[in-house]
Amino acid sequence: MKLLDLDVRSCTVDIEFIYFISTTCIILLFMVVSFTYHFLRWQLAYAYYLFLALLFDTKLKNKQAANQYDAFVSYNTHDEPWVIRELLPKLEGEQDWKLCLHHRDFEPGKPIIDNITDAIYGSRKTICVISRRYLESEWCSREIQVASFRLFDEQKDVLIMVFLEDIPIAQLSPYYRMRKLLKRRTFLSWPRAEEHPELFWEKLRQALKTGEDVGEDQFLLNVVAGP
Questions:
Q1: Is the dihedral of CA 128, 129, 132, 137 positive or negative?
Q2: pLDDT tens, 78-136?
Q3: Residue 108: phi, psi to the nearest 5?
Q4: Alpha carbon separation from 17 to 10, 12, 59 (Å, rounded)
Q5: CB 120 within 8 A of CB 146
Q6: Do residues 114 and 144 touch, judged by C-beta distance below 8 A?
Q7: Might you name a Gene Ontology BP term for this protein (predicted)?
Q8: Integer CA distances (angstroms), 72 to 11, 20, 28, 118, 209, in order
Q9: Phi, psi for residue 55 in degrees, rounded to 5
């Protein structure tokens, strides 16, 4: 080819097209990262720790030997007075259960998600003390999320729900995971047990005492039945 016939435009770089491609990729990447962080970050975090548990064989395979506590108590700090005044004296003082609590048993300096995961998998069961403030708390929602992951993954009855307030099911619609659990399971209600508090504690004792079969203790929690 003669030099005069050479199309020199083929030697130039289309900077505008490169800018367009780069900008599009950056915007798409930002949207994917934002979506993942907002909706899936805790699922990914849990999957990461579940992978570590499988890799190092510390949580799932040896979970029976790792049960240091009878129950991990998940609650909002605003409900801590009820836990300290009502729950602890009954379960630890009178019934001699060993409970795991945030302020007392979490390891200082350890990441919160590590403490939550270790507490849930290191306990035979998880007691969720649910109130409106509990539902508004991000960390509380993470705790019941990990507990429900364990429930669905192991297919064992490891979750006990105690309602401190009467919350209509309709108001739980934003909390789809909670509503799904309530539709499938029974639960205990503290307000409705005021006339017979001893029955409430007896039902809670039975729920802690029973084995981990999903259907084994469904007939025990009859203080309040789920819808």
A1: negative
A2: 999 999 999 999 999 888 899 999 888 898 888 888 888 888 888 989 999 999 899 88
A3: -65, 140
A4: 14, 12, 51
A5: yes
A6: no
A7: toll-like receptor signaling pathway
A8: 68, 53, 41, 10, 14
A9: -65, -45
First-to-last alpha carbon distance for the chain, in angstroms, is 83
Q: How far is CA 96 from CA 34, 70, 93, in A?
A: 47, 10, 6
Residue type at position 74? S
CA atoms within 13 A on the CB side of 124: 12
H or E element: which one contains 71?
strand 69-74
Q: Which of 212, 205, 62, 59 is nearest to 124 (CA)?
A: 212
In total, the chain counts a number of residues equal to: 227
